[in-house]
Structure formats: C-alpha cells, structure tokens
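Checklist before submission:
- one chain only
- standard amino acids only
- sequence pasted in full

Submission:
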Amino acid sequence: MNYSKRIRTSVIAGLGAASMVALSACGAADTKSSGGADEVTITVPSWVGARANAEVAKKLLEDEVGVKKVELQQLDEPIAWDALNNGKADAILEDWDGQPKKQKLYIDQKKTVVKGGDLGVTGHIGWYVPKYYADKHPEILDYKNLNKFAKDFKSNRSGDKGEFIGAAPSYTTYDEFLIKNHKLNFKIKDTGNEAAQIKEIQRKYAAKEPFISYWWEPLWANADMDMVEVKLPPFKEGCNEPETKTECGYANTPLQKYFNADFAKDGGDAAEFLKNFKWTTEEQNEVAMSIAKDKMSGEAAAEKWIKDNKATWEKWLPKK
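Returned file contents:
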C-alpha cells in the first residue's frame, strides 16, 4: 500500500452544481460503429486540482476531438472505482493510490479497469508550518523537537496541548497515529472540509500566527503562502501497516489515470486523448487558482488556459 494515499470525499465550496451531474443509470461511453466514444463520462474527486484536470479535458474533448458530450461526475473515490468497474464511468484522471483493494480486484482479478498512464503531477502530503515561524524557530523542522514548541500552537480548543490543524475528516491520514506513536503533545482539530481548512490556514497566515497542519502539493493556495515541511521519519514501503503502528512520513506519489477497460479498448480518439493527457503541477495549479481564487467557472478557467497553452495540449490530440 502506498502511504500517501488520500481518499478525498469532502465537497469544495462553490464547486458549481451545473458542471457536475448525477451518475446516470445508463452506461457511460456510447461508442460509434467505428469504435470511437461519442459520449464520455469522467469522474471528478472533490478537490479543485482534480476538477482542473477534468474541465480542461472536457473542453478539449468536445471542441478538438469531436466528442459530442462529456459528463463530469463528482464521485467519492471508492464509488468512482466502482463506476469504472461497472461501466458507468470511463475515466479517473487523478488517483492518489487511495483504493489498493479495489485496484487489486478490478485491475488484477476482474480486469475491468486498466491503467491510463501518468498524469504528470506528483502528489505529496506532509506536516507544514509557515516559513515566518520556521525562520524564527528552525528546530521546529524536525519532528523530534515538536514538543518543545507545542505551547506556541495552543488554542482554546486544545487545552494544554498544541493544536494540529487536521485534514477533512473524510480524508485518509495517519496523523492521529503519528502523534500517538511519537508521543507528541498535540491535539488534532478537525476542519470539516478542504475549503474550511484552507480558509483557516489563510487567515492564520495573514495574521502571522503560528500553526502546524496537514498540507499537500499540488495546491493552488501555495502560490500565495510560503510553507515549510516538518521532517518526519522517511517513508518505507509497508511502514504504515498496520496503520495504527504508523511512525513514518508520507511518500511522493506520481498521480495516475485509470480507465474502464472497454473504454480504453474501444474509446477511439477520446481514449487516446485521455491517455496522452499529461501536464505539470504548475499548469494544474494555474487552472485550479482560476477556479478557487478568481471564482471563474470551470469552463471559463479551462478556456483561458487552453487559449494560452496550445503548444502543450496539441501534443495530446490523437494522431490522424
């Protein structure tokens, strides 16, 4: 199991219901007699970076590849994998390796899902503090010294412990076990959802308050904040098994795409385009920032990026 798994299920505020449709009872990809997909369904996890992938893919599939209709389905990751298995969805464009059991079942055993290639973005989760605090207290950057500074992170909710700003409750993390197993004098604050966590971090950062939090990359908000990672024990394969014994930090995870097997085989130009879809963290963050910070619609954000980056996306188009 990859330690950096992250099951993302909370709903981002302002996601825009118009761009996400309910999972239909019918099959996902309608295929033409030539074998090309006429309609494509892409599952979209709830975080903004994943939406950036899907919005750009949708726009290009419809405008450049000739797919009549692309549906974006906001689905929790476990349900998305089930949808790929039963043909109600065609593609996941950003997977953080959060479903190893379903991967083994659907890819290795049932062979209903296949790998779609590297997205080009590397995901990383860790514990972070703001640089302005780390500059004053450089020792904070080693987890062994955290208890020395716990008092600086206390809040009216954490009692005599330091407050650790946790991820959305629906995310899979090991912070509870890391704190317990390393005997750290911290208490996790549940933030409710990703949008609430980011908003709180932004508020504390603007006020130059000390804080320590579960944090990750890629994330559009990092463009406006200078965060520094606290060194945890290095990740080694199997170091989080069982999870209650976890003492190691998080791994770097090259984010992956996965397709329904029939779509990968018979989806024609649409499947080829999605296999070719590969961009950088910076490019994803650019679109995500347009959506989350600039409050653009997903379609408008995709259109803006596509207009300015033709040399990048032309490489994704099927060869004629």
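Reviewer check: Residues 168 and 279 are 27 Å apart (CA to CA).
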